[in-house]
Amino acid sequence: MRNNCVLPQNYRFLSKQEDIHIKNHAIGCRINAGNPRTFIPSPGKMNEFYAPGGFRGTRGSSFIQRVIKSHYDSTIGRIVTWGEDRDTAIVRMQVALSETVIEGIETDISLHQKLFNDEPYAQAAWIFIILNTN
Question: What's the pLDDT tens digit per position in 73-114?
């Protein structure tokens, strides 16, 4: 955190590269009101909503708007998971996505679920072309 504050002030970085070690892994999903295949927004009113929760390493945020307007950002919220490694973060995200219930509008939750169950993605070999081919 200290580095984030001093770098904009043209100070030298306080750590050396060899002192920095990768620790943990985080994944975030932006949940949108929209068709998971065409990405066309899905305005309307959420009739049911249950956020993920109660699972270590999982955080949901900004699930506050019950009515999604067609002329505004279609973001409903964001789910973030973390784990000691990528596999743990992915499993936690799969659980969080399966716990999230939003009814009354279409969302892209099923797209996120599909991606997290994709073997190339799990192996970090995933490329964006998959959206056009599947």
Answer: 888 889 999 999 988 999 999 999 999 999 999 999 999 998
Task: Determine whether 74 is exposed, middle or buried from the number of CB atoms within 10 Å of its CB (0-12, 13-18, 19+).
Answer: buried
The number of angstroms, rounded, from the C-alpha of 24 to the middle of its chain's C-alpha atoms is 16
Task: Give every CB contact of residue 46 below 8 A, 6+ residues apart in sequence.
Answer: 66, 67, 68, 76, 102, 103, 104, 105
Range of the domain at 107: 22-133
CATH of residue 73 = 3.30.470.20
Q: Measuring CA to CA, which residue among 67, 79, 73 is closest to residue 105?
A: 67
* pLDDT single digits (tens) 53-70: 767 888 887 666 778 887
Reported pTM = 0.77
DSSP string, 64-92: T-SEE-TTS--EEEEEEEEESSHHHHHHH
